Amino acid sequence: MSSRDLVMARVRRALADVPRAETPSEVAVERTYLRRHGDRTPAETADLLAENLADYRAVVHRTHTAALPALIARLLTARNATTVVVPPGLPADWLSATDIRRIPDTADLTPHDLDAVSSVVTGCAVAIAETGTVVLDASPDQGRRRITLVPDHHICVIRVPAQVVDSVPEALERLDPARPQTWISGPSATSDIELDRVEGVHGPRTLEVVLVTED
């Protein structure tokens, strides 16, 4: 018996008592797991997000709306950035304090082009405090997936509290499953057999997250 035959036989045994006409939507699935762990205020949720992001070696900054452009300008200057990729829907004022050359996110940008870019600035779809995860869904302020996977430096702006949730179940309720999603927990990294950590393998080497308290 092949591995395929073995798996299919197990599936048939598991479904032996299920009527052929029954569909998954007709059977209620008991979901008794906790939707979140603990009862936090919005400020405490933001603090937990910042803590877990830092634990994943993301660089976390906190500011308010009026100071955001100046902060982004400082972060780009600190990286000696000469170019920055800009999603089509990025708020114009976010980059109003810098004159670094902007590279629009267009379909003709190749991975080679993006590899030569210094930085990328995006918004986010939602951020999950309990896991320290930032989720992108290719909305206009985030652009296509490739612009956050190829450049070596990613600045991601998260609005607090509007875009911050406690748990993964709460995040899933906000996301459209039909959209392309990228779930980011810290900079891209891997370890070799000796557990030497190498960053920047599958995405940005440096992830800077800006938590913006909305005025």
TrEMBL record:
| Location of the LUD domain | 112-212
SUPFAM superfamilies, per this entry? NagB/RpiA/CoA transferase-like
**Top-level taxonomic group:** Bacteria
The record's section on Pfam families has: LUD_dom
Task: Provide the protein name.
Answer: LUD domain-containing protein
**What taxonomic classification does the UniProt entry list for its organism?**
Bacteria, Bacillati, Actinomycetota, Actinomycetes, Kitasatosporales
